[in-house]
Amino acid sequence: MTSTKPSAPVEATPAESAPAAALHVGTSDPRTLITRNLRQSGIYIAFVVIVALFAFLTDGVLLSPGNITNIVLQYSYILVLAIGMVILIIAGHIDLSVGSIVALTGGVSAVLVIQHGQPWWIGVVAAVAVGTAVGAWHGFWVAYVGMPAFIVTLAGMLLFRGLTLQVLDNVSLSPFPAEYQKVASGFLNGLIGGQGYDAFTLLVAALAVAGYAVSVFRTRLARIRYEQPVESFPLFVARVLVVAAVVMYFGWQLAHARGLPIVLIVLAVLVIVYGLMTKNTVLGRQVYAIGGNLSAAMLSGVKVRKVNFWIFVNMGFLAGVAGVIYSSRSNGAQPAAGNMFELDAIAAAFIGGAAVAGGVGTVVGAMVGGLIMAVMSNGMQLMGIDQSTQSVVKGLVLLLAVAFDIYNKRRAGAAR
């Protein structure tokens, strides 16, 4: 009688097994994942709770089509600044001068377009160029001279506010031509019709949902392939459906108002580009490395000075973009424009999960942090709450966000 050995099981390759694992099992307990990613998960939960609270307190006015459009238009420049600010904070820096740069770039644009009659696009190009040059100025002192960013940008806040007063000769300039105003106040609608709504806006929202779903599914497969923990598939599907519902509701409300704001397209492009840059490029990984452990980054061959220089140049570029948006929105340039914008941008980054010591933070998190500030400000305005109380509430929210970051670090250190 012959005996046969049982055949050894054939192991599936990671590429073959990943889809099956993604569809049927999770690789970690959901509670463990939520605890591990409390910073990232908590900010989205907080955003939903704050939106629901102010929607209730304002009898639904907060979520009306017209008001949602107003939130996008009124706070878009803060969100643009928050993109650059969170990158600086990840690298362990900060910029206190962005409000002054917004005022200066808007003033330069106004002088060229309003006083000297140049085409509107000349003003846009000049504003962005001036902002980029200011960023290079800051980057030189921080990266190559070795001065702390806090001191350099504090000096810049005073310097460029003074230059704004000189450029505008202490007077306000207005109005901009209609083409310039459309940068922040224009809409794309009626391109593909719709009965009582703008179908193009809904199409863009649906494409955004599809893109998000594909992106997160690919990320999930990659994490499984490298044996990293992911949530169970039902929880993953639920998360995607919640995001899809929020985006489609947002698109539906915009479609029933004035259509898709042009500034929202600009902001979406910036978020996508910088989100990919921070996650999928060498420069992005180097920024995190510098903020996480400067000595290790230098020993690993990261050109710290070069990276620091370019992230300040980038901050200046985005401040120039924000200057164009703000001057377009306000239809003019004022010497006092941009006052306290730097604090709003910093608050958005920290509330969105950036760490005080650097090395932690995301562009999407900064956007959510900025939207939390925007919803709170808009909701309190709708409720008729005075400006002083609004400042108190914003300050407390920022304080709690930083305290939460410190608490998480201490708990992580104790766990080790």
From TrEMBL:
Compositionally biased intervals (Low complexity): 1-22
Highest taxon of source: Bacteria
Keyword Membrane tagged: yes
Keyword entries, A-Z: Cell inner membrane, Cell membrane, Membrane, Sugar transport, Transmembrane, Transmembrane helix, Transport
Pfam family membership, one: BPD_transp_2
Region (Disordered): 1-23
Signal peptide extent: none
Record membrane topology: Multi-pass membrane protein
Transmembrane intervals: 43-65, 71-91, 96-114, 120-142, 149-168, 199-221, 233-252, 258-277, 307-326, 346-375
Location in the cell: Cell membrane
Keyword Cell inner membrane: yes
Its job: Part of the binding-protein-dependent transport system for D-xylose. Probably responsible for the translocation of the substrate across the membrane.
Protein's UniProt name: Xylose transport system permease protein XylH
